[in-house]
Amino acid sequence: MSEFRAWFACIDDECGETYSLDEIIYRCRKCGNLLEVRHDMGQLKEKSADEWRELFDNRYRKQSWPHGSSVWGKKEWVCPYVEDENVVSMYEGATNLFWAERFGSQIGMEDIWLKMCGNSHTGSFKDLGMTVLVSVVKQMTADGKSIPAVACASTGDTSAALAAYCASAGIPAIVFLPKDKVSVAQLVQPISNGALVLSLDTDFDGCMEMVQKVCTRNNIYLANSINSLRIEGQKTISIELCQQFDWEVPDWIVIPGGNLGNISALGKGFLMMRELGLINKLPRLVCAQAEHANPLYQSYLKNFEEFHPVKAKKTLANAIQIGNPVSVNKAIRTLREFDGIVEQASEQELADAAALVDKTGTFNCPHTGVALAAFLKLKERKVFKKSDRVVIVSTAHGLKFVEFKIGYHMGQLEGVFSKYANRPVELPPDYDAITETIFKSIEK
Ligand SMILES: *Cc1c(COP(=O)(O)O)cnc(C)c1O
Ligand SMILES: [Zn+2]
Known about the structure:
Blueprint: E1 6-10, E2 18-19, E3 35-39, H1 41-44, H2 49-59, H3 75-78, E4 97-99, H4 101-106, E5 112-116, H5 126-142, E6 150-153, H6 157-169, E7 173-178, H7 184-192, E8 196-200, H8 204-218, E9 221-222, H9 229-234, H10 236-244, E10 252-256, H11 261-275, E11 284-290, H12 295-301, H13 328-337, E12 341-345, H14 347-358, H15 366-380, E13 390-394, H16 402-409, H17 431-443
Parallel strand pairs: 5-13, 6-7, 6-9, 7-8, 10-11, 10-13, 11-12
Antiparallel strand pairs: 1-2, 1-3, 4-5
Helix pairs in contact: 5-6, 6-7, 10-11, 11-13, 14-15
The structure holds pyridoxal-5'-phosphate (PLP) and zinc ion (ZN).
């Protein structure tokens, strides 16, 4: 057992309930609120900020098990409870921080970065949290607890991550997907990894309701981000970002939000670094929502004084097509603490933003498109200074969304005018026709 201590606590400080990490529990039994993992900060403070930075830097991208993974390289801060032999890891994190130099110069800014969280095992940031959750399940099983299966409702990427990590650990996985609302790649990932794939004739919120019922009544372990173990892995995005900037804090971070676990995780990582002295300021956070699924944006307009779930409409950004986000209370708390902004993007705006930035060398998924569009809108409103360092979190790999990408370039996305379309030119295998086309294109 590790010397470091962590436990679940109710996020309502007045309630104050705590639970052990090996309990199968997702909400506070006393008040029903969300739980979060808390760490014994006094114990963590026994190491100085310099010692932590040095430890994390020494482990970063090495092969030594399990610390080469950028999540488990921060194990003491993430989930010290799991023994190394029960860690289920596929080398998470350590993703490229891409300096979007050409894109920045196009819009008159110099310090714009994309954190490429989709360059990972299953192609989205969901791997960061899932490695922690599945490792805890493996640890609990090793300790004699009976967990017959792990299940999740998903807009696509959570199920891909769950299926892969469970397959690697030999744990049965069940995924609840909204029928015809995920991409082909997202559907084929859990199928390939041998999960039981339940395709339900409803939306994500409907799947979420069903999986919660099935899990609580049948002792099946719930892997959605209401399970705060995932947040612990995801919060390493913030730590890794600072690490990649030599422990400097960017001015702004823009991140797309659906169920709102990731924005909460991002905030949690920064607060922990500040408390332990690794950084001394906080960035401002921007949560970007699709206009078709914008309950947090609506709430933001009213200063977060009220929050109402919405019926999410179909959006190209299918992973954030969520009307009733489970982590809303955590997200609002985070946005208040980080002087946050919520912005929204229409289908037209997200599609154009993704395509525009693709032209400078990345390959953006529609959710990253939402974040990029929100960034561009705030830029227009002069929210940023020219010299501000802005990081846009790219949440998934564009290759998971080829229907979206090709649909855009072929002008086939419903209700979207493809301003930056780049269609393939069909030609006979004829020298003159080919050279004529090439020179016309270069002259443009
Ligand atoms: C899950 C997901 C999101 C949204 O994260 P939340 O924690 O649900 O807010 C954004 N983009 C992609 C690609 C995702 O898979
Ligand atoms: Zn409580």
